[in-house]
Amino acid sequence: MSFNQQLIKWYEIHKRDLPWRSTQNPYYIWLSEVILQQTRVNQGLPYYYRFVKTYPTVHELALAPQEDVLKLWQGLGYYSRARNLHAAAQQVVDMGGVFPQTYKDLLQLKGVGDYTAAAIASFAFQEAVPVVDGNVYRVLSRVYGISTPINESAGIKEFKNLAIKLLDHNQPDVYNQAIMEFGAIQCVPRNPDCTVCPFQNDCVAFNDQRIEELPVKIKKVKIKNLHHHYIVIQTPKAKTLLQQRPQSGIWAGLFEFPFVESDGALLSVEFREKLKQQDWWSGFRFRESVYNQDPIIHKLSHRKIHAYFWIVELDVELKDSIDIKEAFQKPLHILMHRFMSSFWNSYL
Ligand code: SF4
């Protein structure tokens, strides 16, 4: 039996029942693919249902304010995905409201790269293009014993060519789903259960005991430490101050407390000095405390943020401050959400 026949046979028995597998609506398939990038199925599922319910058509998504889309996305991270989703929905509407139907045309949509275009084109329109995502790299590198790095151009090309060769042209949708599912639940990154795998006899990684070392990925990123000192304002009328981040860069467009940066942890007196440099600061009352003794650590792909939250109680109201309740309605990044939900949980 060929690789793809065996794979599809495995899939028919083991596949999970997921909502986007029972639709050919390209909009729903696209939503699921964007949500599932960098996100596990269990975590992504409720978001998928929420998006489909709130924006049942691409038109409704296109017409929504960006703030609402980001709010619905909150908790999923990598917010550029949400912004691209929104912008691409507007592109579809501008193109007459018809979803692009080929791999080539899908690539024109904002945020839609090779993988997503292949997924939508094959799942919704049965176009014979292979998907190559992290799961596929893992499966192919192990079964065929390929150690070319998957994040270098030679590797990308080699795996793509192999994927094209293996694709089942009569049912590209089923084949693509099958290989992704196989990587997601059978040939998993750590300790796959090879005893129940249909490829055990032929799998090079299994036979040569190279499972843990495949696929090969070259590490390139140097982690940078950032120290953010967030200023948590509380006014007598239970208001606070938020600011919106710039429209590009990390957490673009999301809201957070004003903050100052430093090379490391700060003493209270140093923090006060920095506070004095803020436009709106004019010697208000200051409760000398930090919410956490230890900073909250948040890791991004190549940055590590150490977040300190300083509580500053003002004895006057401040221009541009908003009710704490209202602050919860803003699209917040994960650090803000974590801090606010714990510190101001009585407002939730
Ligand atoms: S034998 Fe193990 S490593 Fe090889 S494909 Fe199967 S699960 Fe993956």
Characterise this structure.
- The protein is 43% helix and 11% strand.
- It is α+β, with helices and mostly antiparallel strands and 348 residues long.
- α2 runs antiparallel to α8, α8 crosses α11 and α9 (134-143) packs across α11.
- It is elongated and about 75 Å long.
- The N and C termini lie far apart (57 Å).
- The mean pLDDT is 92.
- Bound molecules: iron/sulfur cluster.
Which descriptors would you attach to this protein?
348 residues; 15 helices; elongated; Endonuclease III, domain 1; 43% helix; alpha+beta; 5-stranded mixed β-sheet; Nucleoside Triphosphate Pyrophosphohydrolase; 11% strand; 9 strands; 2 domains; binds iron/sulfur cluster
Write a concise synopsis of the structure shown.
The longest helix is centred in the N-terminal third of the chain and has 15 residues, at 80-94. Helix 1 (3-14) crosses helix 11 (172-185) and helix 8 crosses helix 11. The protein is 43% helix and 11% strand.
CATH architecture of the largest domain: Orthogonal Bundle
The total tally of domains equals 2
Say what the CATH topology of the largest domain is. Answer: Endonuclease III, domain 1
Strand content: 5-15%
* Spans of at least 5 consecutive residues with low confidence: none
Q: Helix proportion of residues, in percent?
A: 40-55%
The hetero compounds bound to this protein are: iron/sulfur cluster
Number of helices: 15
Radius of gyration: 24 Å
Level-1 CATH class name of the largest domain: Mainly Alpha
Helix/strand-derived category reads alpha+beta
CATH homologous superfamily title of the largest domain: Hypothetical protein, domain 2
Can you count the beta strands?
9
Main beta sheet: 5 strands, mixed
**Order of helical and strand elements:** HHHHHHHHHHHHEEEEEHEEEEHH
